[in-house]
Amino acid sequence: MELNRYIDHTLLAPDATEEQIDTVIQQAIDNHFHTVMVNPYWVTKVHQALQGTDVVTACVIGFPLGANTTKIKVAEAQDAIENGVDEIDMVMNIGELKSGHDDKVAADIQAVVNAGHQANKIVKVILETCLLTDDEITRASQMAADAGADFVKTSTGFSTEGATVHAVEIMAAAVKGTRTAVKASGGIHSTAEAEAMIKAGATRLGVSHSMEVIGKK
């Protein structure tokens, strides 16, 4: 199994330096990862550096809490698009889902999906599965699929736990038969862990330890 093209090579640390961003970019180019995933500030730099390669630029939106207003999430997405982003990973409104306000969660997701798709960009929806019940994971996954999201994603990597095989299996079952795929992200540190997520139904992986996962470090 060639893992390289599953991987969104990720650096979202608040103290990430320009030198570290440069390193991640070069690693992604050298190893043909799918994307370089960064915070919105770095999108312009990453996009310019990846020109002419088989790696694309990705960033997070409403990160890491998902509690921004919809207007701000859309504006942040549009700014990233103007700066050259190819894929957008938005954090859904977790508190509103847990409040049972599914209509508000769905509208928030739909607005960002629309902004992305109008510019022909990939949109992923981060659920933060460690904070959700199995039923809430199912509901949120179905909402993302109903909104036309390209992926539903497990985690930010900034909460109490990252991706689990159990959560990926629930998400995969919830979106089965739709155009929406599953991304496992957070806490994937080895080839075995990556392969377990793929076996559970993930077709994309968010990884900050990508070199270890592909067996090069």
TrEMBL record:
<feature type="active site" description="Schiff-base intermediate with acetaldehyde">
    <location>
        <position position="153"/>
    </location>
</feature>
<dbReference type="Pfam" id="PF01791">
    <property type="entry name" value="DeoC"/>
</dbReference>
<dbReference type="InterPro" id="IPR011343">
    <property type="entry name" value="DeoC"/>
</dbReference>
<feature type="active site" description="Proton donor/acceptor">
    <location>
        <position position="89"/>
    </location>
</feature>
<comment type="function">
    <text>Catalyzes a reversible aldol reaction between acetaldehyde and D-glyceraldehyde 3-phosphate to generate 2-deoxy-D-ribose 5-phosphate.</text>
</comment>
<comment type="pathway">
    <text>Carbohydrate degradation; 2-deoxy-D-ribose 1-phosphate degradation; D-glyceraldehyde 3-phosphate and acetaldehyde from 2-deoxy-alpha-D-ribose 1-phosphate: step 2/2.</text>
</comment>
<dbReference type="GO" id="GO:0006018">
    <property type="term" value="P:2-deoxyribose 1-phosphate catabolic process"/>
</dbReference>
<dbReference type="InterPro" id="IPR002915">
    <property type="entry name" value="DeoC/FbaB/LacD_aldolase"/>
</dbReference>
<protein>
    <recommendedName>
        <fullName>Deoxyribose-phosphate aldolase</fullName>
        <ecNumber>4.1.2.4</ecNumber>
    </recommendedName>
</protein>
<dbReference type="GO" id="GO:0016052">
    <property type="term" value="P:carbohydrate catabolic process"/>
</dbReference>
<dbReference type="GO" id="GO:0004139">
    <property type="term" value="F:deoxyribose-phosphate aldolase activity"/>
</dbReference>
<dbReference type="InterPro" id="IPR013785">
    <property type="entry name" value="Aldolase_TIM"/>
</dbReference>
<dbReference type="InterPro" id="IPR028581">
    <property type="entry name" value="DeoC_typeI"/>
</dbReference>
<keyword id="KW-0963">Cytoplasm</keyword>
<comment type="similarity">
    <text>Belongs to the DeoC/FbaB aldolase family. DeoC type 1 subfamily.</text>
</comment>
<dbReference type="GO" id="GO:0009264">
    <property type="term" value="P:deoxyribonucleotide catabolic process"/>
</dbReference>
<keyword id="KW-0704">Schiff base</keyword>
<dbReference type="GO" id="GO:0005737">
    <property type="term" value="C:cytoplasm"/>
</dbReference>
<keyword id="KW-0456">Lyase</keyword>
<feature type="active site" description="Proton donor/acceptor">
    <location>
        <position position="183"/>
    </location>
</feature>
